[in-house]
Amino acid sequence: MIRRRDNPTTLITQTAHGWLAGQLAAHWGNDRFRLPIDPHEMMLTAANHDQGWWQWEQQPTVNAHHRPTDFLEMPVDDHLAIWRRSIACVESQTRYGALLVSRHARFLNERRVAARRDTHPDWEKLTAFCTEQREWESARLDELWQTAFFAPFCEPVRYDAAFRLLQVFDWLSLLLCMDAVSESAVADVPGQSPDERVSITLKPLADGALTVSPWVFGEPEFSVVLETRQLPAETFADDGDLQAAWRVAPRDLRVFAFRAERGEK
Question: How many domains does the chain divide into?
Fold first, then answer.
């Protein structure tokens, strides 16, 4: 879960966050910012990159402080099982998309391995996962090079750009899931060609809409939606108490309107 502290507690599922990323991917692209791969591949991958959370989200748990467990607080075994399910879910729909999700998972976990903040047994599990995924990605990439449809997307410069865009969609979606959306810069965004990188800025407008500068989307105005659940308390007695509240929690639909600023269209 992504846990926000308001009303008194808003929970956003990882799968809802993923769908938000997919909506952003669906609107992405113009003469200045071009997708390096098939747009349907990109949208499906972004929308499903955290789909492995679905099973856990049916019965969420509390942390040591009796608050809903945040996605950053997962035990390592559960964390890695969820990543493997996410990769498998996307692979059931697109092999190339699964390759991008695997690389995304490996990138995040390699950073965690390098930080060395985990216990040694957990660090070993994370290291083994990264090695496993690196080997799987190499074999999958060799396989996809042999297919007429995927071969162009496997060219290193396009593959790198597609991976970076998945990260961009993931991060923009997380920014929208925060307590309040503030001005935020995102670096190394693929631009007109797969090897170009541009910095963009997400920022709120005076009327509550949002913009991105330079404008990266195909339409001058559009909206995306995010479904959240509102819990009646910040803390719960145990997992069962949270799950009972979760099942009846009212849902709220947040709408994010995006609009290009004058001169950006």
Answer: 1
